[in-house]
Amino acid sequence: MKLFIKKKNRLVIIRFGIPDKIECKRMDKILEKVMLSVYDIAIICTVDIEKVVDFNEMYELYDNCSVMFFFRNRHIMIDLGTGNNNKIDWVLQDKFELIDIIESVYRGVRKGKNLILSPIDFSKKYRF
């Protein structure tokens, strides 16, 4: 808890998901790779949605893996070009995509924005 209090101006990135699922394992590896690179601007946490069910309905957490961004107790929305501005609900290809998104979100929230435009358009990249 002291870590959150000392670093008030950092993003909180939460990976909600089911840790045993392959998508979640792949995303966790990417999150682990970026953790040190974004340490000054973000803290990364994981939540097992089968054990902690309090947020499942509120944030519509029904996917195997979802990544959401928060800043100063506010949920930050990101326009990734997919139509779902609440979360990233697919596995990113590499750590550089995630670092670009994190840096853009951080710059946007520091300016007071609630909806951040992603530097990468995922509308054609991921078809559901």
From TrEMBL:
It is found in: Nucleus. GO terms for biological process: mRNA splicing, via spliceosome. Keywords: mRNA processing, mRNA splicing, Nucleus. The keyword tRNA processing does not apply. One of its GO terms (cellular component) is U4/U6 x U5 tri-snRNP complex. InterPro entries: Dim1 (IPR004123), Thioredoxin-like_sf (IPR036249). It comes from the Eukaryota. Disulfide bonds join C24-C65. Belongs to the DIM1 family. This is mRNA splicing factor DIB1. It comes from Lotharella oceanica.
